[in-house]
Every structure is written in C-alpha cells, then in structure tokens.
Amino acid sequence: METSPQPSPAAAHLTGAAGAILLAAQSAPGGFDPYWAVVGGKPVLTWSVAACARAAPRGAVALVVASDRLDDACALAEAEGWRYVRPVAAHGPQLRDAIAAGLAALPVDCHWVVLHDAARPLLTPELILAGLTAAARTGVACACEPVKETVKRARAGVVTQTLERAHLALLQTPQVFARERLLALLASDAGGQWADAAARAAALGMPVATFPSGHENLRVATADDVALAEDVLARRQREALGGAHG
Q1: Phi and psi (nearest 5°) for 75?
Q2: What is the pLDDT of residue 162?
Q3: Distances, alpha carbon 80 to alpha carbons 31, 49, 74, 85, in Å
Q4: Distance of alpha carbon 172 from alpha carbon 116, whole angstroms
Q5: pLDDT mean by block of 10 residues, the chain; 246 residues
Q6: Residue 219 burial (CB < 10 Å; 0-12/13-18/19+)?
Q7: How far apart are CA 150 and CA 121, in angstroms?
Q8: What's the pLDDT score for residue 32?
C-alpha cells in the first residue's frame, strides 16, 4: 500500500499546493502504446506517477488516459495502492481535451499544476521541483534540453542560415503552470488544436521560464526506447543501492 509522501524541503518556499496531470491519452501510430509498454516490470506511466506523488504531496495526481484504458488505469491504481491518483478519461482527442479533464479532477486549491507526458518514465522529483521553482517567477515554466547539434535553416534543398545553438532548446515535459494561467490557456482556444501547452502559452504572450532537463528524460516512442529506459532505471537502482549501503 502506498504511504503518504513527505513534502520536500526544496518545495517549502512555494505558495499553494501543487498537483499534477499525467497525460497518457494521445494515440500512437503503428499500434505501439508507449504508456502501457512495460519498463522495469511496470507500465511506463507507472514511473511518472511515482515521481509526481513524491514531488507534489500536498495536491493530487490526475492520470488522464484514453476512454478504452480507464478500467485498466483504475485497476492499476488499486493494485499499486495509489491513494492520491485519480484516473480519468480524456474528454476528446486533442491535447487540450486531456488537460481539461485532468484539471477538472484536481482539487481546486491546487495553485500549481505540473503537466507531464506519461511516456517519459524517467521523470524525477528533482526535475519537478526545478519546474515549480522556475514557474514561481513567471507563472509558466518548461523543461528544456539544450541543442547539441548544429542546426541549419534550408530552403529548396539549399542551406540559407546557421542557427545559433545558444538560442535553441528542445521542449520537453514537465511543464508547470499556475492554475489561473492554465485556465486562461484552455479558455483562449476552445476548439483549437495545439501539440504543446508551453508553446501555446508563449504564442499567447505568456512569459515562459525554462529549466534544464537532459537526454535521460527521454520519451518512449518505440521498442528501442523501452530498452534505453530500462538501462537508465537499472543504473539508478544500482546507484540508490550503493548509496544506501554507503
């Protein structure tokens, strides 16, 4: 049975409770379901739930799944003893539908909302807390991985410009929103389609802070990614055991 997680000292300065919305409802091409693929003996989404429950103990975790997976999610929550997790079905096919369903499932006193793609199982409580700290400055924050490759702009098969890597980043999740910012985002485009909440917020003129992530925060999209995630989890478990014995 899951025990009540303890608040992290790093989050003590934050005002208001934090909740999380784990997004696991987007359809996947080719029949591979990244959320329910098995990593480390558990479905991929299980690992993100554990990280969110430890990092946002004063709120709750809304696990948003496709409607045909709701029974599976409820059964998993019961088997894992997830007292703070609320499985819900997405209201529709778009990202904003899933976010709206998750937000409706969170307590109204959750001032901060962590959005995370549940296909990224290597999420850590430390990364979530970094996002909460960054969001406290602007109301919205997004995990970013620095771009290491040289990026060119090309037109008609011809390179026209070399882009400065220092000004480029790969957007990831978690993304953190003050509740009122997320409500404003959802209300701004009731029927629109957008692939990324932080990018949509920036397009609407909301200031978006960034906080550093890395390649380990990978998204499981193929069977090969499952093997990579397995390797990272195994290393982390060895390091944790080594630290405990030390």
Answers
A1: -65, -40
A2: 81
A3: 26, 10, 10, 10
A4: 9
A5: 37 67 84 92 94 74 95 96 93 90 94 96 94 95 87 84 78 96 88 83 94 92 92 88 70
A6: middle
A7: 28
A8: 87
CB 65 within 8 A of CB 74: no
Residue pointed to by tokens 């485009």: 189
Q: How is residue 168 written in tokens?
A: 């480029």
Fold of 15-141+172-245: Spore Coat Polysaccharide Biosynthesis Protein SpsA; Chain A (3.90.550)
d(CA 180, CA 43): 32
* Distance in Å from the first CA to the final CA of the chain: 28
Instruction: For residue 102, give the amino acid letter.
Output: G
Q: Give me the pLDDT at residue 21, please.
A: 96
What does pTM read for this prediction? 0.87
Distance CA 195, CA 165 (A): 23
User: How many residues are there in the chain?
Assistant: 246
